[in-house]
Design goal:
Layout: E1 7-9, H1 16-24, E2 30-32, H2 34-53, H3 77-88, E3 92-95, H4 98-113, H5 121-132, E4 136-137, E5 140-142, H6 150-160, E6 165-167, E7 173-175, H7 176-182, H8 194-199, H9 203-238, H10 248-252, H11 257-270, H12 288-291, H13 293-316, E8 323-325, E9 330-332, H14 340-366, H15 368-385, H16 398-412, H17 434-466, H18 474-488, H19 493-514
Length: 520
């Protein structure tokens, strides 16, 4: 594998997509440039000045949470750093995969570079080396209520100080000390105030959120592919496929960027095909799941754009508490660790995914009668010839699986951010639950991708059965050709859907490349 270009972190704004690409690709290395290291050094000077002054500073020389007004003696400060990491390393549940773990470390490293954390430059460099040397901390998925992802970040910090657990190159769980030794690193000895700086951030909600952003961008385009295939299918079997709702005139009449993008994608996928010629027999209006799909897909695309903006606010902001404010030279307590905008973006997207799923499932339902007719024809032919009935390429009840996936999408659309109780003696009396909102979004992503794959498979099967009397669009024809190979193998239903998902991801990526867009 050819190593990717390093991700250079300076003081300039960082893009969410770049973080996701670096996290997903283990060949990506990261480096801090001079500007970032200089700003990190200045922020550390603010911490050291506050420590020398003797003033009470939250987490520097006081306890945390409800113990915020209890002082920590100077002689105990170094031991207190270890205690903070151990205390917060309390997550439970399954572990994050490698890409998500890398995204957490990258997001926290970028946070250091914004100049508000007050860690030493050598600590920031150490986190860069965790990424570059392939250290893979075992980070439990559950434990954060979204007022800083304390437990996830403590799992990273525990490995950094030679404790905790990590995965080795073979995927075996080993001690954090062994993982560091295997990577040629000595455990990090934390300076006063650094433990809180390492754990008090939203690097899980942000880092893993960048990976979700890439998947959401893919899903927006996959939804348009599935819709386009269904348009051609309903034209073949039910006299539908009216393209007027996708026309530039309709799209220009309502200024929603995502809607225009969706309609343009459908026109591009169908270009060169028979639906471009207006047929006198075509239905005046298709059902809303076809006709108003650009509005549904467009609203979803707009929310994906908003998520990207919310992620970049968090990546490029200073969410530290207390904030080492270089400009004033003061340590300032605040609430920037509360990523409410991001949490609400995750909430809204799950609702949007459910609406996209509703339209997809309704289109699948409208493609079911032709499937029954084809099966009846096959049954009659087998009876007439006396030969055995061949196994169908498309499992008969995939529509029911789609209906089940839609039900799951509707359940997952329920609010996640309203459920946190008050914590720490009622001092922490409001939380965002951003991690839960993100985890529910990840489940929604899986469900909708399967549902759209079922729609694409159903439409492709019917188009193949109809033959080549009318030419398909350039884009849809290419997708049908790929899915034809998958269908011809007659795999089991689970394998069929998984293989279709892989084919569709590849097709969408190639479509972006041909259009000159970034491949994410």
């Amino acid at each position: 594998m050819t190593p990717a270009e390093p991700l250079t972190i300076g003081t300039a704004p960082v893009r969410a997509v770049d973080v996701a690409l670096a996290a997903a690709d283990p060949t990506f290395h990261v480096k801090l440039n001079h500007d970032a290291l200089s700003l990190i050094g200045l922020s550390r000077e603010v911490v050291e000045k506050a420590a020398a002054s003797g003033q009470r500073v939250y987490g520097l020389n006081t306890l945390l949470g409800s113990g915020r007004d209890t002082a920590v003696e100077a002689k105990s400060l170094l031991a207190y750093q270890v205690q903070v990491v151990r205390y917060h390393n309390s997550g439970v549940g399954s572990y994050l995969d490698r890409a998500a773990a890398r995204s957490v470390i990258l997001a926290r490293l970028i946070g250091f570079s914004r100049g508000g954390s007050g860690v030493r430059p050598e600590t920031a460099r150490f986190y860069a080396e965790l990424v570059n040397r392939g250290v893979f901390p075992a980070i439990p998925r559950e434990g954060s209520v979204g007022s800083s992802d304390l437990t996830q970040l403590a799992a990273v910090a525990a490995v950094a100080i030679g404790e905790g657990e990590a995965f080795d190159a073979s995927g075996t769980l080993v001690s954090g000390a062994k993982a560091l030794a295997d990577a040629g690193l000595q455990p990090l000895v934390l300076a006063p105030g650094e433990a809180l700086a390492l754990v008090s951030a939203n690097a899980y909600s942000v880092g893993a959120g960048t990976l979700a952003l890439l998947r959401l961008q893919h899903l927006g385009e996959l939804a348009d592919v599935a819709l386009s295939l269904s348009l051609e299918t309903t034209a073949r079997y039910d006299g539908g496929g009216n393209l007027s709702p996708f026309s530039p005139a309709i799209q220009a009449a309502k200024a929603v960027d995502g809607q225009r993008d969706s309609a343009a994608a459908v026109r591009r996928l169908l270009s060169g095909g028979w639906l471009e010629d207006v047929r006198p027999e075509v239905s005046v209006q298709d059902a809303l799941s076809f006709r108003a799909a650009p509005q549904t897909h467009g609203a979803f695309r707009s929310l994906v754009t908003q998520l990207g903006m919310a992620l970049e606010v968090e990546l490029n902001g200073r969410g530290d508490n207390p904030l080492a404010d270089v400009e004033s030279g003061l340590m300032v307590s605040g609430g920037n660790f509360q990523p409410m905008q991001l949490a609400l973006a995750y909430e809204g997207l799950r609702l949007a995914l459910a609406h996209v799923g509703i339209s997809s499932e309704r289109r699948i339902a409208k493609l079911y009668p032709p499937q029954r007719a084809i099966r009846a024809k096959h049954l009659k032919a087998a009876a007439s010839s006396g030969s055995g009935l061949a196994q169908e390429e498309l499992p008969g009840l995939l529509w029911y699986s789609a209906a089940g996936l839609l039900a799951e999408l509707k359940v997952l659309a329920a609010p996640a951010t309203l459920g946190a109780p008050t914590l720490s003696a009622d001092v922490e009396d409001h939380s965002t639950l951003a991690p839960l909102a993100l985890q529910q979004l990840e489940k929604s992503l899986d469900a909708l991708e399967k549902l759209l794959a079922i729609e694409a498979l159903t439409a492709s099967y019917l188009l193949l059965e109809a033959g080549a009397a009318q030419p398909l669009g350039k884009g849809t024809g290419a997708v049908v050709g790929r899915l034809a190979d998958v269908l011809a193998d007659r795999p089991s239903a689970p394998d069929l859907v998984e293989r279709a998902r892989a084919v569709l991801r590849s097709a969408v990526a190639e479509e972006r490349s041909e259009e000159g867009e970034e491949p994410w």
